[in-house]
Design brief:
By secondary structure, the chain is of the alpha/beta class. About 40% of the residues lie in helices and about 30% in strands. It contains 4 helices and 5 strands, in the order βββαβααβα. It is globular and about 40 Å long.
């Protein structure tokens, strides 16, 4: 049993065009204390995958101490990258199986450092399936993107 605090991290990213303006958001829940934190942000020229990654990065950065994190995401790209692909990429010098440079390497390397601090458990959530926290993250990410676009 882990002595680390347990948290639930829900994340989502949104992009209008790929690339185009995008938003990210996370909801961080501490089940023991019932505290919640939600945050979002946006970038003018980005991709959906970058926004999905940013949501997880910002959520993990918000943790004040090493934690047991149940990560909920609708992004297979993020979850598979963390669970399976990243270890192989690192062994190959951050190259894919076809020897190509890993896309979004800057964010993957940032996530690699954050993952080393925390114990992550991965949960895939079907997007737009009325999962309350996933829907909330989606609304926050879209709102952040729209606020950026409107100026």
């Amino acid at each position: 049993m882990s002595t680390k605090p347990h948290v639930e991290l829900y994340t989502d990213g949104a992009c209008s065009g790929n690339p185009g303006p995008g938003g990210w958001a996370f909801v961080l829940k501490h089940p023991a204390t019932k505290k919640e934190l939600e945050t979002s942000g946006a970038e003018a020229e980005t991709t959906n995958n970058r926004m999905e990654l940013m949501a997880v990065i910002r959520g993990l950065e918000a943790l004040k101490s090493p934690s047991l994190v149940d990560l909920y995401s609708d992004s297979q790209y993020v979850l598979n990258g963390l669970k399976e692909w990243m270890a192989a990429w690192k062994k190959r010098g951050w190259r894919t199986a076809s020897k190509q440079p890993v896309k979004n390497i800057d964010l993957w390397q940032e996530l690699d450092g954050l993952q080393a601090t925390h114990d992550l458990r991965f949960h895939w959530v079907r997007g737009h399936s009325e999962h309350p926290e996933n829907e909330r993250c989606d609304q926050l990410a879209v709102a952040a993107r729209e606020k950026l676009v409107r100026g």
